[in-house]
Amino acid sequence: MARTVGIGNQDFESIRESGYFYIDKTHFIREWWENGDSVTLITRPRRFGKTLNMSMLEKFFSVKYAGRSDLFEGLSIWREEKYRQIQGTYPVLSLSFADVKENSFEQARKKMCRIIRELYYQFHFLTESGVMTDSEKRDFLQISVNMEDNEAAFTLKALSGYLSRYYGKKVLILLDEYDTPMQEAYVNGYWQEMVRFTRNLFNSTFKTNPYLERAIMTGITRVSKESIFSDLNNLKVVTTTSGKYGDCFGFTEEEVFAALGEFGLSDRKQQVKDWYDGFSFGEKRDIYNPWSIINFLDEKKAGAYWANTSANSLVGKLIREGSIDVKKTFQALLGGKTLHIEIDEQIIYEQLPSKKNAVWSLLLASGYLKVVNTDFVERTGRTYYELALTNKEVYVMFENMIRDWFSGNDDYNDFIKAMLMDDLKAMNFYMNRVAAEMFSSFDSGTKPSGKEPERFYHGFVLGLMAELTDKYIITSNRESGFGRYDIMLEPRKRQGDDAVIIEFKVQAEDEKELSDTVKDALRQIEEKGYQTNLIAKGFPEECIRKYGFAFCGKTVLIGR
User: Fold this and answer.
1) Scanning 142, 250, 494, 506, which has the fewest C-beta atoms within 10 Å of its C-beta?
2) Given a cut of 80, is residue 107 above it in pLDDT?
3) ∠100-320-530 over CA atoms, to 5°?
4) Which domains does the chain have, with CATH numbers?
């Protein structure tokens, strides 16, 4: 009989006591302990078992769980005597910043201080233990959400000292989702304040803490060393491209297929592979998204489970407000193409809008892109990555994200209908209303006629894709004839649907009317022979529609 799937349960003790579905990852304990690193940072995409593994570590090492062999019996770690001997023998500080998702630095700082205060509450017995001086007791009891930044910085170091004295042993520190406050700080505009606060806390806790035995941090991204880890020369970083702990997070294909067999779903292997496979950590390939798998086992149908667990606000912001090159590259990825780039896994949030490859590094770290191939150049010592969208689930997520940008906009839907019907009057009417309403959401500037004026329209291309990819192959900025067209829609079925070529033009200073700009756009389509590729594929001229989009600010004129 198949085990019960406990959706959303990330507590190791609860899962084991209840006999819920669980794939043994206790070899992670062994690997981490035997590596002997002082401070370890492991980055993995969200919902990849980071929190559950941290819960597992706490239950294994913490003195609070001494004698709890029942939690580990039958699992791989319990086969070795030396590990049975160290279970429940260390003081452990375990905390998570996963819920620090505030709109302001002051609120975020208070939330982090509250988490520390609640951690202190767990060890209130220390004040009566005889290991603390009167002054230390007063300091202990004064920990609050309103403590000063310099006080907060030393809290975890101080608590480590009290515990070390009490147990006669150095402490283990487990910090889950360390980078959530950093991501929220970037999105909400208080990055520098959060950097200062976090750098001081981490330096005191992980660098200058004489009571620390070992520590481990988990997160989604590797925030640059210059940002918050500048003083930590004892930090071992394990990213998605690193060799360590490759099968400790996420499910291997063997584990997934065994689970499908347990639940009587072995005939769905290919569907599950298409939807949820594609992740790789170091040399470990065919890693599956665990959140999606357990939901599939529970629901017994495919769906975008992982994609729906987060608003993906940062990713959406970077793509929506990104440069024309970002939009074009993203469009190519949605079209099944790959991207060849050099990756810098140290995420420098301040550079995300401007650094050429920063957005793709973030998408790789977050699990939205997968490594198809790598190319190490001996001469330069640089590694180049071939990247693609991870799987069908990720594709559906982005498709839904783009659709949501236009959700509730009837004008957009009406524009699509008008274009398919070649109703030029309606196209102009609805496109102008769409542009007036939506431009500010698609461009970080204030005027469409400012820097990179076509940003809005390339954002609009993504909207077209979300709506029309089932009917059309949509390409952008591809060579055809003697130039590069802006947008081409090629019908997947030849009968009944016309192909479409669209060219955008900004009104030039010497053009008195937008109609002149439209003519210029249409002239360029003809002179450059943008229809050449379509004709070569067998499309007759009369089945190729050509539109010139002329714009000035938020005013648009479309002509044929």
Assistant:
1) 142
2) yes
3) 160
4) 35-238 (3.40.50), 251-300 (no CATH), 309-399 (1.10.10), 406-559 (no CATH)
